[in-house]
Amino acid sequence: MIRVGAMVALALLLPLRVTGSTEVPPSQSALKALSRHFDAARASPPGSRPKTPNIDLQALVGVPFSAVRTSLGTPAKCAWVPPPELKGGECWSYVYGPKAVHIPASVYLHNGYEEITVVSGGPFLLMLNVSEGHIAAAKWLGQR
């Protein structure tokens, strides 16, 4: 009888373990990762072209656009309508990289010649198709 009583007392003294789901939803995880990567890319030296992160952009589908704006900042409207493979709703884009380097259009060399600098490419763009306030599609777009 004493053993049973001691076991009951011991069981009452042991802390109860409460199990709950502490798993972060894929959309929240993707937004946090994108925010970190965008911060690092924006802090890169001017003129650099950081590689896009390996993040599953499909995890953003269904996320409120307001959450993306909070994480990544103010987007730009897409320069063309409709953008490649994003249809319906609105198209917004984020530049993935530092601010552009100012390059003068031409430099006079004082020997009868002018020198021009031609820059090809540019930063990657995160293209978002927003429909009814939520992300409908997301993709990276590289510039050449």
Topology of this structure?
Blueprint lengths: L1 H12 L12 H17 L22 H8 L3 E2 L12 E7 L10 E2 L5 E2 L6 E10 L2 E10 L1
Helix pairs in contact: 2-3
Structure explained in plain terms:
This protein is an alpha+beta fold and 144 residues long. The protein has one domain (25-143). 26% of the residues lie in helices and 23% in strands. It has a 4-stranded antiparallel β-sheet. The chain has a two-stranded antiparallel ribbon with strand order 3-4.
Concise synopsis of the structure shown:
This protein has 144 residues and is of the alpha+beta class. It has helices at 2-13, 26-42, 65-72, and strands spanning 76-77, 90-96, 107-108, 114-115, 122-131, 134-143.
Key terms for this structure?
144 residues, alpha+beta, four-stranded antiparallel β-sheet, two-stranded antiparallel ribbon, 26% helix, elongated
Helix content: 25-40%
Within the largest sheet, what's the order of strands? 1-2-5-6
Main sheet overview: 4 strands, antiparallel
Q: What distance separates the N and C termini?
A: 82 Å
Shape: elongated
Hey, roughly how much beta strand do the residues contain?
A: 15-25%
Low confidence ranges = 4-19
Distinct helical segment count: 3
Indicate how many domains the architecture comprises: 1
Order of helices and strands: HHHEEEEEE
How would you classify the helix and strand content by structural class? alpha+beta
Tally of strands: 6
